[in-house]
């Protein structure tokens, strides 16, 4: 069994009961770790190279990426990854009733500033900004923006990367591996997961074991400007940061990109709508609400074993 621990929101360490090799790098704006059984360690390097190609395709910061060019020039030629990511994102927009919206980039990339040069945005500036995905037009060759929107694939890009590496390793007949990009993790074989408790430093909210499945966690407490009420989880309908949920963890055999997008969307949905949506999907959830209540889906044992609440 492979043991995996999420620490301080999304970082982690990995210990192995079998002979496993782990390597880590910073890619796609986050800490990435890939572990395989010793026999397949040579596949770790090309896995990182694959993630680098995906980063070069989906990044909003790299001048050579199609998405960056699209945001700057209102048009761009697409490659296979950028086209597929845009196509998936449009599907997620529709299935989440618009709560997953990649057209939110004007707010998340321009108006708000997270990190070294923090900036809080006025309500007036937020309301004037556009989040209309109707301004995006694309096909396999090119994409166009017809209004003042910008694209931000951060709500599904890490999960997308996990899926591509997972598919690559499975194609090479790898049976035991972990691909982890921040809070998006997929296990080939058996893994033990521990979810961090955002209310108490260095403590776990819950732990469980899963097999050949993925987990995605979204939280509003890890990235914000000055105060958590100005966090990075923006509701595209109200254009405000959401605080209803402190942590949303989803577990499923669904693609990691899908779980990533769903976790992002649910984090900004009204409470009743969020649970109504989740209960229609083939997944389980562990959610920490702002009122400090932990809500666990009734079907949790269909997806995990050895569940422990701390």
The CATH topology annotation of the domain at 54-145 reads as T-fold
Largest sheet: 8 strands, antiparallel
Average the pLDDT over all residues and give the rounded result.
87
Query: How large, in whole angstroms, is the Cα Rg?
Result: 19 Å
- CATH homologous superfamily heading of the domain at 54-145: ApbE-like superfamily
Assign an overall shape: globular
- Which residues form runs of ≥5 with pLDDT under 50? 1-16, 223-227
Strand order of the largest sheet: 3-4-8-9-12-15-16-17
Considering DSSP H and I runs of 4 or more, what fraction of the residues is helical?
25-40%
Structural class: alpha+beta
Per CATH, the architecture of the domain at 54-145 is Orthogonal Bundle
Strand coverage percent: 25-35%
Order of helices and strands: EEEEHHEHHHEEHEEEEEEEEHHEEE
Q: What's the tally of helices?
A: 8
CATH class descriptor name of the domain at 54-145: Mainly Alpha
Task: Describe this structure in a few short sentences.
This protein is an alpha+beta fold.
What would you note in describing this structure?
The protein is an alpha+beta fold and 310 residues long. The protein has a domain of 92 residues: ApbE-like superfamily (T-fold, Orthogonal Bundle). Helix content is 28%, strand content 32%. The protein has eight helices and 18 strands. An eight-stranded antiparallel sheet has the order 3-4-8-9-12-15-16-17, with helices on one face. A five-stranded mixed sheet has the order 2-1-10-11-18, with no helix packed on it. A three-stranded antiparallel sheet has the order 5-7-6. A hairpin with a 3-residue loop joins strand 6 and strand 7. Helix 6 runs antiparallel to helix 7. The longest helix is centred in the N-terminal third of the chain and has 16 residues.
């Amino acid at each position: 069994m492979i043991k995996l621990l999420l620490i301080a929101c999304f970082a982690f360490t990995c210990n192995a009961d079998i002979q496993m090799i782990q390597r880590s790098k910073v890619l796609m704006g986050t800490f990435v770790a890939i572990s395989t059984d010793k026999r397949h360690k040579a596949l770790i390097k090309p896995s990182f190279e694959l993630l680098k190609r995906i980063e070069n395709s989906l990044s909003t910061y790299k001048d050579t990426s199609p998405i960056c060019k699209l945001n700057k020039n209102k048009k761009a030629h697409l490659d296979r990854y950028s086209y597929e990511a845009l196509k998936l994102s449009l599907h997620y927009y529709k299935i989440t009733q618009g709560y997953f919206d990649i057209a939110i980039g004007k707010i998340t990339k321009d108006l708000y500033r997270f990190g070294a040069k923090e900036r809080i945005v006025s309500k007036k500036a937020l309301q004037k900004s556009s989040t209309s995905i109707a301004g995006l037009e694309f096909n396999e060759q090119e994409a166009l923006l017809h209004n003042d929107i910008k694209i931000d694939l951060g709500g599904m890009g890490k999960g997308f990367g996990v899926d591509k590496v997972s598919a690559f390793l499975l194609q090479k007949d790898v049976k035991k591996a972990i691909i982890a990009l921040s809070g998006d993790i997929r296990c080939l074989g058996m893994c033990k997961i521990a979810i961090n408790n955002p209310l108490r430093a260095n403590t776990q909210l819950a732990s469980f074991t899963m097999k050949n499945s993925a987990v995605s966690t979204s939280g509003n407490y890890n990235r914000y400007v000055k105060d958590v009420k100005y966090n990075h989880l923006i509701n595209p309908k109200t254009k405000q940061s959401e605080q209803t949920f402190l942590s949303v963890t989803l577990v499923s055999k669904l693609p990691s990109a899908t779980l990533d997008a769903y976790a992002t969307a649910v984090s900004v949905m009204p409470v009743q709508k969020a649970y109504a949506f989740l209960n229609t999907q083939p997944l389980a959830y562990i959610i920490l609400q702002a009122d400090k209540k932990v809500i666990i889906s009734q079907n949790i044992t269909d997806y995990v074993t050895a569940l422990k609440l701390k």
